[in-house]
Amino acid sequence: MDIFRKKSIRASSKSELRKNLKVKDLILLGIGAVIGTGIFVVTGTAAADYAGPAATLSFLVAAIVVIASGFSFAEFAARVPITGGPYGYLSVVFGELSGWMAGWFLICEYLLAVSSVASGWSSYFQGFLTSIGIHLPKALTAGYNAQNGTYVDLVAAIVVLLITVWVTQEAKKALRLNNLMVWVKFGIIALFIIVGVFFVDPGNWTPYVPFGSAGVFDGAALVFFAFLGFDAIAMAAEEVENPQKDVPRGIIASILIAATLYIIVTIILTGMVPYTELGVGDPVAFAMRYVHLDSVGSILSIGAIFTLLTVTISMLYSLVRLIYAISKDGLLPKFLSKIDKKHRTPVNATYVTGAIALFFAAAFPLNLLAELTNITALACLIMMSLGVIRLRKMMGEPKQGEYRMPFVPILPLFSAIACAFLMTRLTGATWIVFGITTLIGLGIYFGYGYKNSHMNQVD
Questions:
Q1: Among 20-29, 47-56, 441-450, the least confident range
Q2: Suppose 343 and one of 75, 170, 247, 439 were both cysteines; which one would form an S-S bond, judging by CB atoms 3.0 to 4.6 Å apart?
Q3: Is 411 a domain residue?
């Protein structure tokens, strides 16, 4: 048994998908995946419960770690332009088992992200319905919890169903709604910044570090996950006109834009409202209500409801491309790699993925599973950082015109250590669930993937 057999870049270069995405599409895809619940929810939680006004430093620390990780994605995207993102990259440098485990961690991350955002969108939308006097039956308002009398989150299920149908369309068309909503999102954030800056009270920034340096790092462990989603760009490589240049540009640009917006919003937010008051579910809108601008707060709330759809679209799109890539290599059932003749998209993978996400979104109280997203994502980023070092040993220095990660191997090692440090900030229960998830992934590989892999044809 050879679990270290490596995928060939040349053998992976053939594509049945339509190449029509440009760098602008990739930047908007990345921003659509990254900027969502982070800027509308996590900013307040980080300030109120972890770092106080120093939440800006938490975002800065997290941004440094994410940018370092993004560099590794960018070099891989330039030098290994194949679909599947980390799954494909690590299959080339470390071998099939490592690639599969990276892919498995990403499947968990994306699947849970799609379901949880749909559930969060449902909560916002139900709040809006309640404000206009419409009430759903309690049994249909949330995932299964017999004690609370809830059984199915109907709105979340409908959202996932509609997004699934939309993502079956041609990539350019499927991302059109995402691109539109990203511009709406920019407008909402700009409205908050332009209006909010006039209500900043510097006194609210004192004390600046109420929870000490530990609070800053704990806050960084939380807000780090507000940046997740930039790796969605790497999943689109097979549908990009010029992947070697455009994918790295899309990754780095989306991270820098997101980091800048997060930091600016957090500075203004903590300046408008004492940090002790920000432990609410809608801190950005709450800040406007706090300074008696209720109408602006309502606009921000409605905008947040609609723009959260971009996270669902981006994550589901990326998850489908990942499952398609793994299935195409034989590690998942072959029918998942079927391409729709009209739209040139992986239709079966879309429907199956959408059905699973719908089940989780409708039936499960996802707060019980959400931390798994955090630890699986960090594990994958560690593997990617170490992978760049291995890539340099295998393929040498990048050629002229290819993206080059700076300061190899120092920066990749820093990224891996930083991600490992953030993992240590997570709870013991999360580590137990992570261990179980890892065992399930290994079970799928050794029970199905290894013997059905296309690499058996060349062993």
A1: 20-29
A2: 170
A3: yes
In a domain, 2, yes or no: no
What is the crossing angle of helices 23-34 and 294-328, to 10°? Answer: 110
Q: How far apart are CA 21 and CA 243, in angstroms?
A: 9
CATH code, 114: 1.20.1740.10
Provide the number of structural domains found in the chain.
1
How is residue 398 annotated by DSSP? Answer: P
R_g over Cα of the chain: 21
Residues written for the chain = 459
Cis peptide before 207 (omega within 30 of 0): yes
- How far apart are the C-alpha atoms of 363 and 417, rounded to whole Å? 37
Please give the Cα distance from 336 to 330 (Å, whole number): 10
Nearest to 229 by CA among 118, 125, 310: 310
DSSP states of 194-255: HHHGGG--GGGG-SS-TTHHHHHHHHHHHHGGGSTTTTHHHHTGGGBSSHHHHHHHHHHHHH
Q: Tell whether 3 is covered by a domain.
A: no
What DSSP string runs through 11-77? Answer: GG----S---B-HHHHHHHHHHHHSSHIIIIIHHHIIIIIIGGGHHHHHHHHHHHHHHHHHHHHHHH
**Cβ 170 vs Cβ 343: under 8 Å:** yes
In terms of C-beta density within 10 A (0-12 exposed, 13-18 middle, 19 or more buried), how is residue 122 classed? buried
pLDDT value at position 368?
54
pLDDT for 105-163, tens place per residue? 999 888 887 887 787 677 767 777 877 788 889 888 877 778 888 888 888 889 889 88
Q: Which of 305, 286, 282 is nearest to 294 (CA)?
A: 286
pLDDT tens track for 149-189? 888 888 888 988 988 888 887 666 666 777 788 888 899 99
Please state, in angstroms and as integers, the Cα–Cα distance from residue 83 to each residue in 16, 87, 228, 391, following that order: 11, 8, 19, 17
Per-residue pLDDT reduced to its tens digit, 381-429:
999 999 999 999 999 999 887 889 999 999 999 999 999 998 888 888 8
Lowest mean pLDDT among 95-109, 194-208, 308-322: 308-322
Domain membership flag for residue 4: no
Q: Identify the domain containing residue 351 by its residue range.
A: 10-457
